[in-house]
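Predict the 3D structure for this chain.
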Amino acid sequence: MQTPIQIRFTNIDRSEAVETVIRARAERLPKFASGITSCHVYVEDTSHRRKGNRYKVRVEVRVPGAEIAVNNKPGDIHAHDDILVAVRDAFDAMERRLKRRKPNPLAASSGRATPLQGRVAELHAEERFGQIEARDGRLVYFHANSVVNDDFARLGVGDTVELVVQEDESEKGPQASTVRRIGPMKFVDRPD
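Done. Predicted structure below.
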């Protein structure tokens, strides 16, 4: 990987044991896809918001030409009461996605290092969704659940964001699986 693995804990104290397991699983990912440039892992304790599935783990991997994100979604409602099971399931899902992925030969030669960015073009707070005008010219739908760290309420039209677009488009067009607010200083306002 070109950049170190980034791990963020939300509503939970940092755990060296959990971080060690995450790092070990992340280091295995290059076996499933070549050219991984970065890996971001978000671990959140959601027990304050809802019942069941106490831990939510999100893994984001960037490869040339694509950004892939998975959330853990257990079949057993109580499976993610154990943080290590939540981590295992999220990385198992990422490994499956990377195995199924077909590499884009044109993207491999582009060397794009900057994540996909855009500006919030529309925001419908009551319905909890919006549209992002991505730097590549696409208009991308996003839902409040896609916004990292529950920042949906803090978003405004014109705000700069990084986004991960789902690989499989919906019938309504491209949809963001992850949206992260960034400061205007991090926004690259020119095409690659």
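The first helix runs from residue 16 to 28.
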